[in-house]
């Protein structure tokens, strides 16, 4: 006979997958579940812990257990696509909010990322992306003014790459990418809906033109539950 907490776990998984408990909805309290299943609180906690470990719920201190939206967007790791191009393929219209669009004198960190020497100004564009009423991506773009002499909030809200290629005539060639998992910064928590989440996935892009000039550095900071980072690999013999 299976342990009772496994039976409860399987039943609750079925209820979540059948959407009897919907995404972002809180499960009944531990006391309510204890009464419902006529078992101990320890057994209920074991079942809830297993649900959390397998990505069905997120425990939020002081509030309870929230059902995680398990639908994920495929995010290509090796491709070099704009967010607008990716969003068009998703079939879901996101909302982009531009928080900053300004010309700055880059600090040492940015100079190092962009391999800048001497006095160079950089466009700083900070945008957040909202899906289904939740802010889940923070994009931080830095573009060297030498290659991008002008930038506006309207351009940033629509598509920077469309502007760079179609208006400025730049030929974007390739990018080096790094993927890291970090603790959210204060800015992440201010801008994104991160309650109950303790990590974010950061994709760092170093983007080059066709003459191998590094002109853009980007940090795309993602809430971890919404994205599946995918790639295609072929073994070379």
TrEMBL record:
Matches recorded under PROSITE patterns: HTH_GNTR
Coiled-coil ranges (or none): none
Residue ranges annotated for the HTH gntR-type domain, each copy included: 2-70
GO biological process: negative regulation of DNA-templated transcription
Protein keywords: DNA-binding, Repressor, Transcription, Transcription regulation
GO molecular function: DNA binding; DNA-binding transcription factor activity
Tree of life domain: Bacteria
SUPFAM superfamilies: Chorismate lyase-like (SSF64288), Winged helix' DNA-binding domain (SSF46785)
NCBIfam families in alphabetical order: trehalos_R_Bsub
Descriptive protein name: Trehalose operon repressor
Organism: Gracilibacillus salitolerans
């Amino acid at each position: 006979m299976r342990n009772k907490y496994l039976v409860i776990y399987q039943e609750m998984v079925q209820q979540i997958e059948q959407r009897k408990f919907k995404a972002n909805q809180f499960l009944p309290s531990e006391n309510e579940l204890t009464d419902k299943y006529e078992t101990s609180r320890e057994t209920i906690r074991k079942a809830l812990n297993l649900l959390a470990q397998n990505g069905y719920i997120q425990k939020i201190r002081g509030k309870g257990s929230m059902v995680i939206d398990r639908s994920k967007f495929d995010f290509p790791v090796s491709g070099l696509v704009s967010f607008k191009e990716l969003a068009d393929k998703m079939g879901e219209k996101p909302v982009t909010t531009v928080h900053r669009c300004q010309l700055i004198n880059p600090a040492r960190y940015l100079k190092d990322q962009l391999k800048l020497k001497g006095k160079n100004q950089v466009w700083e564009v900070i945008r957040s992306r909202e899906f289904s009423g939740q802010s889940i991506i923070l994009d931080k773009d830095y573009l060297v003014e030498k290659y991008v002499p002008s930038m506006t909030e309207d351009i940033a809200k629509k598509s920077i790459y469309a502007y760079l290629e179609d208006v400025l005539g730049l030929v974007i060639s390739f990018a080096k990418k790094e993927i890291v998992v970090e603790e959210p910064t204060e800015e992440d928590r201010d801008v994104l809906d991160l309650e109950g989440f303790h990590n974010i996935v950061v994709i760092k892009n170093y983007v080059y033109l066709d003459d191998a000039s590094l002109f853009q550095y980007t940090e795309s900071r993602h809430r971890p539950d919404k994205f599946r980072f995918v790639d295609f690999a072929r073994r070379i013999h």
